[in-house]
Give the backbone structure.
Amino acid sequence: MGNEVEQKSDQKSSIQLAKEHDINVENYQHPMSNLPWYWQWFHKIKRVVYLSCLFVPCASVSLAAYLTNIKSWKEYSLDMLVSTIEAAGCTFQKYGQWVSNRPDMFPQFLVEAMQKLCSHAPMHSEALTRAAFKESFGAEIEDIFEEFDLTPIASGTVAQVYRAKLKPEYALEDGTVRVAVKVRHPHVMQETFYDVDILYHFINLGSWFYKAFSVPFDRAQFVNLLQKQVDLTCEALNLQKFKENFASETQDGALAFPSFSDKFLSESVLVEGWATGKVLEDFFDAGKHAIQGTVDTLETLSQNIGDQITEAKRDMAVTIFDTAMKMFLRDNLMHGDLHAGNVMYNTETESMTVIDAGITCALDGTSSSENFVKFLHAMCTAKGEQLSESLLGMADAPPTLDREQFDLDIQQAIEMFMDPDTKRNKRGDGPVPVGDITGEVFRTLQRHQVYLHGDVTSLLMSIAMLEGLIEQLDPEFDMMAEAIPYIVRYKFDAVASIQGVNPSVGSGLLFRVLSGCGMI
């Protein structure tokens, strides 16, 4: 094996990496799309039958718990729901993760239940892992690694992760030999080919009973987005792009993206540098545990610990928000799965590592980008007509759309939660609830049969997940206010044009732009 594999050279650029591994993120072709139509229908019917058998018992128990209002039944039904979603596979688990990051849209008991899906999922066998290495590299695990713990340390929706140590001759570019090895679950290929379409109908059915489940999107584009995550070469390419985009931010060590091996890389295997620290979800209850453990012995010390943890979580929120804003406003490449299980924090070095970059979002074309900036500006300024105009510029609308009524409904969606005069939370406490406004806008779109383009929906859902994560870290963090400087900095021309300002005059008019955004 040592003679067959060339020694590792310098880390390739994202362009070189894409060419060498024939990675086409923009036009991903799912392997099962090449099957004859009758085989595709056979597999689809089989999935529908399987999922029906899976969810009918769960739905029956949940209905009984709802009708009887018995606490023990409710708890059992939630446990059953989580296990059912785990058994349903990758796509349903992804939707459950999104629900877990929306405490503003879903009941707390459901959010807490779905959080179990963020870092834990069913595991596949050792034999299947060995088969993946043999198929990908024509080699056994022992040929590549000095150490390989065959007990997975974690299992996600797409793959499971092992702790390992590379042989010295196969060390990563930076000399790292301690690695995390991601191996794709073999069953996700069939699941991601059909389940998004099935989930779309499931969500629409659920919206009849609970409106928060309504998420309008173009199915074809959204299916393609989620299917790309099963190809781990796409994730490696995303990681390399993030490392290039954030080259200056990562120099001081406060932010990092995992390094990886471009030699041992395939659709089903990804070898990454080991990221030290804890996932953020471990910090959410850390304050309560620390305080509870010391309150009986020393009240002052307990308060100090609580203050330190709160401050650390605020710093995490700032770092994550800064990273996310640069991703989609500066680089047009947003991490599409930014939940608490995909961000690690090292308390000793105070550094943050973003992992699991399988899903990314990017706006297609200049028109979508300009309309999205108008959308953000309208959200900040509570301008319903401008908001509806920007939405229609990023969506497909029926020819019979009642534009006047649509504008009115969008304005009402904003004013339900935000005072249009003060640009503050209508309740008068806390930051403006962006998630509540976005959720009501989504429901308005669905009522008028207006469907957002897939790239826009993906980005909005990523922002929704981001808000849920930040809210868990710092409930007082005002995303509306904090977003304004980023919008102006990276989209100055677009914001200036909205305000009727000639951007060529220069930054001397920045004051007027900020004033128009309601920031000063």
